Amino acid sequence: MTTFAALGVRSRTVETLRRSSIEDALPVQREAIPPLLQRRDVVIQSPTGSGKTLAYLVPLVERLAGHRTAGPRALVVTPTRELASQIAGVLRTVDPGLRVALLIGGVGYGPQTSALRNATDVVIGCPGRILDLAERGVARLAAIEFLVLDEADEMLDQGFARDVERIIALTQQNSEQGIARQTVLASATMPEWVQTMVARHLVDPVRVAVAREQEPVLQHGLVRVGRDERVAMLSTLLRRHGESAIVFHRTKHGAAKLARDLGRLGHRALALQGNLSQNARARAIADFRNRRADVLVATNVAARGLDVAHVSLVVNVELPETPEWLTHRIGRTARNGAPGTALTFLGDDDMEKWGRLQRLGAPALRWVDRDALVGSGEMVFLDTPVVTRPGNTRPASGGRGTGPSRWRSPASRGQRPMPRGPRPGRPAPQARDTRPTGPGMAARRTGGRPGRVDRPA
Asked: Is residue 61 part of a domain?
């Protein structure tokens, strides 16, 4: 193992990390920290949960080297409020002496304005609110020396790219004073469009691409579930599982309704979606993190950056819009070497979309034996291929391939199985909310001009 001291980190920071039981650097930190300490621009591509946040926060702390009264010298831009809040919490742990301004929508301007006027060292926030306060003359970014775009693939997608370009322009005045701005791009996935931004704004960047030291103990399979039976099926699986789960829905209203439906069935379920106030969103995450709730029903707002150690099950009751969103959703479990289970529901009307996701790079997954899953909690894969032609999509009844996975639910330890709902051959189509909710499509106003994007739904 490599210590942070061996990477060139100051003893003061090493001691602060040690007090938080952080002593040995993870692979991505070993690769990224040395060039960042040399003030090089760095592009970090590393799996979710691999330690990217500390990989850039430790060099940030080292560059600032304590509080100064000159104004913000570091800026971290993220696509979601939850991720921004989480990063701010980590930074306060690494260096409690730095003054941090958290600029996110959904809350009043007062505390954020006061923080910026109180000699802030680091600004962390979402594009919409950062630009709003910059346009008001409160957030002055001309002295930024260290710029981070976290979840860079989404930050540079069409919904955010224009605002991000404007933010970068506000940080470029330091170069006129002979101070080179250091830029970091970090994400689990790096689509092609990120390369344009790298070429335009980074100078001779070091590229850090780190795979996991060990593959996560993750079982991910497809479950055949019609739309009219998804709530009942989900309730059964949650009772079988008996531990913390995140359930992803495509729309805000769908997530809220599903959480209510699960609550009526006796589950301690909370919704996390963009129509909630920021205080309500923070309470939902805190209650889930502290195990006052067992199920978090969320939109893609929870797919990035949310780190809750005890999440052992992820269920996609609705498919995401892109393979990258599928990767980030599944990344909420099987983190830091812990085992995890992921299930994706598919019905007849999902097959065309699933085929498109696979053509765009989604992983080739197998069907899970539904009878074993419902009856005993065993995750048994079928050899039958997933056929994406509409009308010919039901897996064969036999053909088990692999044996049971590591997931053994409370039911397998003697609890009485719940009755199963009917399995119709082809459910009748239902009305759906077809408003776009993919990356960069949420157009919620965040306190400034209408239409500015602050986060996914």
From this structure: yes
